[in-house]
Write a structure and sequence with these properties.
Largest sheet: 5 strands, antiparallel
Number of helices: 2
Structural class: alpha+beta
Number of strands: 5
Number of domains: 1
Strand content: 15-25%
Radius of gyration: 14 Å
Shape: globular
Length: 124
């Protein structure tokens, strides 16, 4: 996922990128959670990925298998209503979501999503 400029409120967010299937499961898990907030999420059609905006500095300690976390070094993503990357679109647009997703909560949701996907795939 290409990183460009970012505007307020998360002027230096890092981006956690995951496969679309796992990301969609994680969004559902986060939305069903008791008060768990999810920040803007970008769907990149060309790469078949979702990008979760997380607080700056998350990339330094991110170690979730099957995902990557890109540090933006203050560059971030453009949080305008228009998607910042050609071929992408906001799944959860800025203004309709919290400023960023808590990385601890996202890590748990991605783990649960991976287990659900594995269980579903093994039922065939």
């Amino acid at each position: 996922m290409e990183i460009s400029r970012i505007s307020e409120p998360c002027s230096a967010c890092d981006v956690v990128t995951v496969p679309t299937r796992q990301g969609l499961e994680a969004v559902d898990i986060l939305r069903r959670g008791a008060g768990e907030a999810v920040g803007p999420v970008l769907h990149d059609d060309g790469c078949d990925t979702l990008g979760f905006l997380v607080p700056p500095g998350t990339a330094a300690a991110w170690d979730v298998p099957g995902s990557t976390c890109t540090g933006t070094d203050g560059r971030g993503l453009d949080l305008n209503p228009e998607p910042p990357v050609e071929g992408s679109d906001w799944l959860l647009p800025p203004g309709e979501a919290d400023p960023a997703t808590d990385p601890v909560v996202l890590r748990a949701a991605l783990g649960e999503a991976a287990r659900l996907i594995e269980a579903a795939d093994n039922c065939r």
